[in-house]
Amino acid sequence: MSSHQIHHPSDCVSNRYKIIYFIGEGGMQQVYYAEDLALKREVALKVPKNMSAEKRFKRSAVVSARVNHPNVAKTLDYLEDGGNLYLIEEFISGQDLKEGVIQKLQVVDPYLTAKIFHYLAKGIAASHRAGVIHRDLKPSNIMVSGSFNLTEIKITDFGIAKMAEEEISNAVKDGESTMSNSSTAVGALPYMAPEMIQESKRAGKTSDIWSLGAMMYELISGEKPFGIGWGSVLNILNAAPPSKPTYFDNQLQFQPLGNQLYELILLCLKKNPEERPTAEQLVQQCEKLCYPVVDRKEGIVDEYPRGDWGIIKSNDGRKIFFHLDSVYGEKPQLGSKVCFSEFPGSPYNRAHPVVLMQ
Fold it and tell me: What region holds the Protein kinase domain (predicted)?
């Protein structure tokens, strides 16, 4: 256990929240898995790492508590104890979008991307209706459960977004050296709207829409729309539309939905904030998308009897047929790990879509 941790297992905060284990930390806070002894439930306990973060912690907690929606992590409590401030959120058993999806799949197919897009748009719309702007939307602030089935998709860390905005603003203003030393700024930059880079106080609801579009482009293409690091700043400020991913143009089965998603993404990434859709409008557009919600499974490409089709051996040992027309992304090789949905077929069930795992 590292010495920098503020709490250790069995510590009890305010005689109510028993620390079970350390989950991790970001630029602004540490997060712990804890038990609410009063209500016998699991919670995420968040504590700021330094005094600069503490300044806005209470105000941010009050703001985030306004939002009540299935796609937003619920703020349950705020308290002060032993000289520290604490934010208590519902505990989401899973991983963030970066760890749980982006780092596990080479690229995300349009079906799964459409589901994530739809659910996040609903969560953002609920927060905007409550007058709450996130300001720091990025994959590490999206929690997902159920592996690739994504049984839960929730936006988190509304409570520290305003504080993150200040650190990001200072890093951008001070230049590349400061930017590279700020983990918060480095992680946020690829998803920052042009107006946030120019002047963070201009960040509004439309800045959240930009961030959503940037995340969705990364999912469906496997690349960040404007690059990474300090070098992406000029690209973001120019806001030249990112190129259409080639994967769904090369595979006709993915083309209709892929084109619809790309059009929505480009709307989100309009340089002029006034030209971007509202979150409510995005929800309405996502409701028109036709995407299946079918369980995802994992397996290994076990046979290639012919060049255009093969057999996946699923994790439960069964043989599943697939055709290269159903592959989104690069062609898997013998022994490649893949993620897929399964449909009835003979002599073997058929996999569609098939996506290469990292």
Answer: 17-294
CA dihedral sign, ordered 194, 197, 199, 202: positive
As a whole number of angstroms, the distance between CA 193 and CA 265 comes to 13
- For residues 19 and 5, give the distance between their C-alpha atoms in angstroms, rounded to a whole number: 12
Alpha-carbon distance values, 259 to 27, 47, 89, 187, 352 (Å):
36, 42, 37, 28, 19
Task: Answer for the pair 353, 254: CB distance below 8 angstroms, yes or no.
Answer: yes
Residues of the chain with pLDDT under 70: 1-3, 27, 51-56, 159-187, 200
Residue 157: inside a domain, yes or no? yes
27: amino acid identity, one letter: G
Comparing C-alpha atoms, which of 287, 247, 246 is closest to residue 264? Answer: 287
DSSP string for residues in 107-159: S--HHHHHHHHHHHHHHHHHHHHTT---S---GGGEEEESGGG-SEEEE--HH
| Number of alpha carbons in the 13 Å side-chain half-sphere of residue 26 | 25
Six token digits for residue 45: 């306990």
Handedness of CA 192, 194, 198, 200 (dihedral sign): negative
Of the candidates 90, 125, 143, which is a domain's last residue? 90
Contact 264, 116 (CB under 8 A): no
Q: Is 209 domain-assigned?
A: yes
Q: Say yes or no: 33 and 147 in one domain.
A: no
β-strand pairing of 349-356 with 327-328:
parallel
Picking from 287, 321, 337, the residue at the C-terminal end of a domain is: 287
Question: Do 127 and 76 share a structural domain?
Answer: no
Whether the ω angle into residue 332 lies within 30 degrees of 0, i.e. cis, is no
Helices (H), 182-332: 183-188, 194-198, 205-221, 232-238, 247-250, 255-268, 279-287
Neighbour-count burial of 143, counting CB atoms closer than 10 A to its CB (0-12 exposed, 13-18 middle, 19+ buried): buried
Give the count of domains, the chain. 3
The whole domain housing 209 covers: 95-287
Based on the domain organization, do 32 and 149 belong to the same domain?
no
Taking only the tens place, the pLDDT of each residue in 202-243 is 788 999 999 999 999 999 999 999 998 777 889 999 999 999
